[in-house]
Amino acid sequence: xxxxxxxxxxxxxxxxxxxxxxxxxxxxxxxxxxxxxxxxxxxxxxxxxxxxxxxxxxxxxxxxxxxxxxxxxxxxxxxxxxxxxxxxxxxxxxxxxxxxxxxxxxxxxxxxxxxxxxxxxxxxxxxxxxxxxxxxxxxxxxxxxxxxxxxxxxxxxxxxxxxxxxxxxxxxxxxxxxxxxxxxxxxxxxxxxxxxxxxxxxxxxxxxxxxxxxxxxxxxxxxxxxxxxxxxxxxxxxxxxxxxxxxxxxxxxxxxxxxxxxxxxxxxxxxxxxxxxxxxxxxxxxxxxxxxxxxxxxxxxxxxxxxxxxxxxxxxxxxxxxxxxx
Length: 326
Description:
Radius of gyration: 21 Å
Order of helices and strands: HHHHHHHHHHHHHHHH
Structural class: mainly alpha
Helix content: over 70%
């Protein structure tokens, strides 16, 4: 039998869900979450949706009470991963629907790590849709119940950039202080497999976004410092989207400091990103950089040429690739 056939046979079992079935389901969640770090969102969704349906069916059947908390946790993790993928593909309604399902499951499972991940996904949907106040509300709601460093890092980082984007510099810097304090103590955990772990490098480029939003020479210098630190933290096998995000934040910082050539060099490294990895957050960052380049386009021929390449880059996106495959 293939591995998938073997797994299905195991989970059908007899007498309801037992520890063996739960171990298999937890292993599958970890695999899918890890896949998200190396595969485009459009590739991970089919297996996630099949698993979601399977776990929902298990919950709807009469199961032993001791198995239900694990099943709700698994259902919530899978739903949250689907929400994350939908958000990356520019499907906010789908993302929000799956995130609500994940939040309900997280509540039943009483799992703080999952709750933080769901609030972060909800905040991300709002943030990239321009709903900065709503993004801040999601992060605040999550932070009120989160006590461990990993969950606080994720949500305070989200809160900091949302507050900065909506123009509340004091609140943004206060949230950033919480994030940087938690950053010193965060370690990977089996409770947050794959993409569900908030990478310290991500926290660094979130910090860069805070400083970029606040503006001015000092904040641009701090943004560049944080973006470069993110690139130093990322390992050689870090997701290309993470690296691209940090490079684009660095590019914006260079532009804010008046170094057009350095900014162009940073963006140039991102424009080779495969279409299927051009997620909504990446496209939004590139579009923002394009607007800044447009303001100085008459000052450098290379900048004008780069703007044309950016236009092509933002035309062919992961969302468009999804439509083509459908």
